[in-house]
Amino acid sequence: MSSIAENIARLKKDLPPEVTLVAVSKTKPVSDLMQAYAGGQRVFGENKVQEMVSKQQEMPKDIQWHMIGHLQRNKVKYMAGFVDLVHGVDSLRLLQEIDKQAAKHQRVIDCLLQIRIAQEETKFGLPGHELDTLLESSAFKELQNVRVVGLMGMASFTSNMTQVRKEFEHLQQLYKRLNTIHNWHVLSMGMSGDYPLALECGSNMIRVGSAIFGARNYH
Ligand SMILES: *Cc1c(COP(=O)(O)O)cnc(C)c1O
Known about the structure:
Number of helices: 10
Cofactor: pyridoxal 5'-phosphate
Pfam families: Ala_racemase_N
Distance between the termini: 28 Å
Helix content: 40-55%
Largest sheet: 9 strands, parallel
CATH architecture: Alpha-Beta Barrel
Shape: globular
Strand content: 15-25%
CATH topology: TIM Barrel
CATH class: Alpha Beta
Family: Belongs to the pyridoxal phosphate-binding protein YggS/PROSC family.
Bound molecules: pyridoxal-5'-phosphate
Keywords: Pyridoxal phosphate
Oligomer: single chain
Organism: Aureitalea marina
């Protein structure tokens, strides 16, 4: 077994069955993704539309592709025909564009609303207090070709696990308050460095990159 497939097997062994593992393959070559595929992995996460599109064209068609990155509206059209879940939706305008492009493909695209939970200024996401306004707006209720199925968040990039726990618990509370009302089923939080803590805080979808594929080299 390749080391990538071994990493996946090791991770999955400890995961409760209801938790989805998204293998975050950004920057990695198709040959690496194919090793994960050979190990049984079918859910892959990418953060750039072009990269996801070209990998999708090269790889087997039973893969579920998740867009996990910050998404520009003008890129939505390139992936609307196949994307399985969009994690990083943080505005009504973006939802409206996804809705429009999904309609062209006669699809309903599942989305997660990304909530800004980190203290850091750099992280994208909708402020938690704007969530109810969005969900209750008539413009949101009119959308036919997108379905919000849950929430996504990224904790601060810090080794202070007390801080990270606080941020995850905040997202968990929002999720708990709203998931029964809205019929949600996905709480996407946790990455290589913090997924055990995210699972303790109720996550049922973790996005793991470097712990599967090794460190990324951006140069
Ligand atoms: C890159 C990325 C991940 C994975 O990060 P690792 O630390 O490599 O596990 C998860 N979520 C998002 C949104 C990312 O951009």
